[in-house]
Design a protein that fits this description.
Elements: H1 4-20, H2 26-32, H3 39-51, E1 55-56, E2 65-66, H4 68-78, H5 86-97, H6 102-117, E3 120-124, E4 133-142, E5 145-152, E6 157-163, H7 170-184, H8 192-196, H9 205-224, E7 230-233, H10 250-256, H11 259-266, E8 275-278, E9 290-297, E10 305-312, H12 317-337
Antiparallel strand pairs: 1-2, 3-7, 3-10, 4-5, 5-6, 8-9, 9-10
């Protein structure tokens, strides 16, 4: 266990290095921070921190910089989540309130996160696996053609055309719409197949083929849309941090092009809290010089997807964690109200 004083020295090193981009020396620490001890004592503390792997000397005669291990201790023990100011919260709400549909919500969220954190923003679309049905609409387009509209609790809307095996009257369509919604509205997508399997039996024999066709289209829609989707923005922000990446940022850019990698970075949506992964904690080699801050979002207090940012390990962790958490909270409210 590190002493309280050495923890304070580590905190000061992280804060100075993130703010100045320059390795930090003992003289600068004592001048900038009220540590209450002499530069010689600070030098001894820095030597101990270096021996334990929390800081490192990038080259001879330079000051010290935090290591991945040092950043991890900073995030876990020393850094609180920086709350957003009232004007910042109003700006977030005003920006997101103008969204017209789910795609617009996700696009605005990506832009907002990238602007707030000046990092790369990644937003996962709500997963249908963790969603519930808000409403199923059936619209007659022709005597034997129906449009099926599926609306989720997260504001996602899916439309499918259904070619029926026989003409289907408006009264029968209204009956099917009512019976279908009475069974599936407010229920999880994963429960829908079992909830509707005997529904054709409630209709006249001549209508059962059409009812089965409509239900098949509904169930196919659930399967098709289970594929995870996400949106990324702010990649150009990485060019501001070129010297934070060894040799080149190319491996980072290549990794960010792979959707599977990004989904793994965000992690499982079932974990709603703020998660921070630093440097070599990230399994993908191309991202070992980055950190990822992510959080779950959703309506009703349950995470249906994740959003987050990717940037260099030399990151303002308290500010980034605060921004990511605040944006996720507002996105969740929008989904609940939509």
């Amino acid at each position: 266990m590190l002493s309280e004083r050495r923890l304070q020295v580590l905190r000061a090193i992280v804060q100075d290095y993130v703010g100045t981009e320059e390795p930090v020396g003992s003289k600068a620490l004592t001048e900038r921070h009220n540590l209450g001890v002499s530069p010689a004592t600070v030098r001894n503390d820095m030597a101990a921190l270096e021996d334990e792997g929390f800081i490192a000397q990038p080259h001879t005669s330079a000051g010290r910089i935090p290591t991945d291990k040092g950043y991890r201790l900073f995030v876990d023990k020393l850094a609180g989540v920086k709350p957003m100011s009232a004007p910042e919260r109003r700006a977030i709400q005003n920006f997101l309130d103008g969204a017209v549909d789910l795609d617009d919500v996700v696009a605005r969220t990506v832009r907002l996160l990238a602007q707030l954190t000046r990092q790369v923003a990644v937003v996962q679309y709500p997963s249908l696996i963790r969603s519930t049905v808000r409403h199923v609409e059936l619209l007659a387009l022709a005597p034997a053609r129906v449009m099926l509209v599926l609306i989720t609790d997260t504001g996602r809307v899916e439309q499918r055309m259904v070619d029926c095996p026989a003409p289907f009257g408006e009264s029968s369509l209204a009956d099917l719409r009512a019976r279908l919604n009475s069974r599936v509205a407010g229920r999880r997508f994963t429960d829908v197949p079992q909830l509707v399997e005997d529904l054709p039996d409630a209709f006249e024999v001549e209508d059962r083929g059409t009812v089965s066709t409509v239900l098949s289209t509904l169930l196919e829609t659930l399967v098709e849309e289970n594929e995870e989707r996400l949106m990324i923005g702010g990649t150009a922000n990485l060019t501001r941090f070129g010297h934070d990446f060894p040799l080149t940022i190319r491996p980072v850019l290549e990794a960010l092009e792979e959707q599977v990698v990004l989904l793994k970075l965000l992690g499982e949506a079932k974990d709603p809290g703020v998660t921070v992964r630093i440097g070599h904690e990230i399994a993908h080699e191309g991202l070992n010089s980055t950190s990822v801050v992510s959080v779950g979002y959703g309506s009703g207090g349950e995470a249906v997807a994740k959003l987050g940012v990717v940037g260099p390990t030399r990151m303002d962790y308290p500010g980034t964690m605060g921004a990511v958490r605040a944006v996720a909270r507002y996105v969740g409210q929008i989904l609940a109200e939509s």
